[in-house]
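Hey, quick one: can you model this chain's 3D structure?
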Amino acid sequence: MIDWKMRSVESIVSELPPSSSATAVVGAGGDRGGGGWLYGWFVECHGLWHNVLMIVPSVLFVLYLASQAKRSFSKVYNGRSHVVAALYAILWLVSIFNLAWCSLQAWECAPGKQFMWSVISLFTTSGMLFLEVSLIAFLLQGNYASGREALTQTFLISAIVVGLDISLKGIYLFGFGIQLFDVSNNGSQWALWVFHKLLLTGVYGLIFFMYRSRWRERLPARPAFQNYISIMFYVNATALLACALAAHGTGFGLWLYNITVICYHAMYLPLLYITFLADFLQEDDLHLENVYYSEMKDAGFFDVDWE
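Sure thing. Here's the predicted structure for all 307 residues.
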């Protein structure tokens, strides 16, 4: 009796049209038509909040740059600083790459997209590293270099450092087949990331302590620069700790590393803009000189008893 009932149920199910039996299951999120692809793009791989925290700040920053583009282009065109003009142009390019990288997080978990994910990750991280190294090189030149001299020296140093970085990452990616930008990998990429973060932490730490020593007069006096160095030192030190923990298979290290990645890609470009470009692009020349003088005075660079 039970066997007869089971066979009758199976016969009824087999006679149903495909749309009645399969569409309900696929429509729950497995299809790629309608809203299914959007669900997979936002929710799968890293999860909804990870993607939102990456994409939304990147979109807002690009929209802000676009809203200020007319005024900023006028300031850059009429300005006399080659360094500011070059940084502004590179900032636009890197912001677009970063927005694309943040928007394509689902590629990291798609087997057929690993090569494209590695390429766009390589370009994006190298562009952001180029900005980092350029600003470090500019700061270390102190208050004496300006114009074409500062631009040439700054970008030469940046090109050499980033060229070596791309070469090393390319060997890992395309030579040894190690997926550097796949955090779910077997752990062979962490040695490079520990070395990478160790170098950046060391450089930012050196400048951080220079600003708090008797050699601080060799660096630009603006407090905004000091705040930038402090933030980048703490972020890279945290990333170094996270990479070291993740290399030993610690789940907390992987979680902490993901937090630093979100903070870096979501907040670094706005931080750079506020620190180095906002005053040049929004303030009048005479007012800008007064702002710099006030900041230097507040920092104690005009104290009589300062050594």
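One thing worth noting: The two ends are 100 Å apart (CA to CA).
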